[in-house]
Every structure is written in structure tokens, then in C-alpha cells.
Amino acid sequence: MSEGDIMVKVKKILLDVLKPHEPGVLEFARTIAAQGDDYRVELTVAEMDDKTETLQLIIEGADIQLETIVSAINSMGGSLHSIDGVDVVNVKPE
Amino acid sequence: MPQLLREIRQFIAISQSHDIARRYFVVNGFDGALTMLGLLMGFYFSEDTESGTIVTVCLSAAIALAMSGLSSAYVSEVAERKKEYRELQEAMVTDITGSAHEKAARWAPLVIAFTNGLSPLLISLVIISPFLLAPVGVVFPVGLFESSLGIAFSLIFFLGVFLGRVSGSFWLVAGLQTLGIALVTTLLIYLIT
């Protein structure tokens, strides 16, 4: 199998994110879900401080684009601390 | 369009400018209404009641109130927003330049300043509208003074009603409270003139 036949897609990622209190978690999750047509977002608040909160995000989709998700997180004032898990598949081209 | 709406909603939520602008609108609007009421009562009880003079004086006061509201709110809001943004930046550790929070820190003072400035100007213009409209042929059922005073008392009552709705108290009581302040103001002006 040649290198060109490989089509790797990210199906699921686990992110550790720090964000300000505003926008709220519902709006935050909605905005991230809006970055893909079939994105499913599961958000858990892991820690809450005076001005910030630490989130654990689980994002699922057919082909997750991390760059657009990070861009959406940054636009809402958040920052990606770490990628704690990934689920990646090699899809054979039809 | 949904993206734009989402951004506007985010901006309002982050800056919390909705609540602040509403508060400023009422506070400075009340200032404008009471100032116009005071000026009109002063003219009403004095000898010189020429329409041109009344319009000039009231408009000048309204513009001064607008400029005062605009500049004071802008200066104080810029300082507050800068402080909040700096504190958030420190808490986030990473650079949040270009985020909605930075945009909110830049735009919120402008939105709030315009609300604070336009509120007394618009309310003042509405109160003196009989004096502005009479020269172009608009006829009022009662005299110009009485019309303006009626509008002033009504607006002050409705500002109270609006505050009552915000606080969740009975609208009539809230309206009557602000109307009472206007009546006390009128009585004080009557006593000193």
C-alpha cells in the first residue's frame, strides 16, 4: 500500500482547556460544536478559580479539524493546555 | 448571519455591557429629564418665556449633558475594562490578544459611552419637542409649556416603571416614586422662584 492510499481521520479528541468564566460553558460548547457539521461535544468543568475555569472537552466527529477547534477556543479567550487523548482511524479511500 | 449573531451574543455576555448600558440609560436619562423639567419650570415661573430662548437654553443643556455623559462614561469604562482585561490576561497566563475579550474591552466603552450620552439628549429632545415642532405648524391641544411638562412627567414616570420591571417590583409604585421626585423638584423650584 502506497503512502497516498492512507487517509487518516481524527474521530475523537480529549482536550484540557483553560478559559475565562465568560462565555459560559454552554456557549463555549456550542461554539466548538458549530465548527463541524457532525461534531459532538462533551464538556466537563474540572476546576474553577476566581477568573478562570479548567475544562475537559471530548469532541467526536467524522473528521475533526483540530486547528479550527483551537482557533475557536482562542477566539473565546481560552487556551489549549494539552491533548490528553485521541481516537484516530485510517479510512480507506473508495 | 448565525455566526455574526453568535459573536454579538458572545460580545454582550463577555462585556456584560447590556446591564451596564441599561443602568446608564436610566440614570442619565433621568438626569436629562429632571434637568429639562427644572429649566422649563424656571422659564414657566419667570417673565421671559420666549420660545426661541427656551429652545436655545434647553438644547444647550441637553448637548452639555450628552457630552458629559459620553466623555465621563468613556473615560471610566476604558479604565475599568483595561484593568479587567489585564487581570484576565494574568489569570490566563497565555496571550489572549485577538480574543473576544480583547474586542469586548475595546468596544464596550464606546457602546456604553454612546448610550450614556445619547440617553439624556434623546429624552431632552422629546421633552422640548413641542417647542421644536410648533414653529413648523404642529398644533398641540394644550399650551407648549403644558405639553412639554406633561411629556417630562410622563417620561419620568415611565423611567420609574422601567426600573420597577428591572428590579421586579410593582411597576406602579416604582413609577410613582420617580414621579414623586419630579414633583418635589418642581415644588423646590416653585419655592425658590
Give a brief outline of the structure.
Helix content of chain A is 20%, strand content 46%. Chain A is an alpha+beta fold and 94 residues long.
What does this structure look like?
- The complex is a heterodimer of chains A (94) and B (193).
- A four-stranded antiparallel sheet of chain A has the order 2-3-1-4.
- Chain A has a domain at 19-53 and 61-90.
- Chain A is built from two helices and four strands.
- Chain A starts with 7 loop residues before the first strand and ends with a strand.
- Chain A is of the alpha+beta class.
- By secondary structure, chain B is an all-alpha fold.
- Chain B has one domain.
- Helices cover 85% and strands 0% of the residues of chain B.
- Chain B is built from seven helices and no strands.
- The longest helix of chain B has 42 residues, at 51-92.
- Chain B is elongated, with a radius of gyration of 20 Å.
- The model of chain B has no long low-confidence stretch (mean pLDDT 89).
- Chain A binds chain B through residues 18, 20, 22-24, 27, 30-31, 34, 49-52, 74-79, and chain B through 3, 6, 9-10, 13-14, 16, 87-88, 91-94, 96, 98-101.
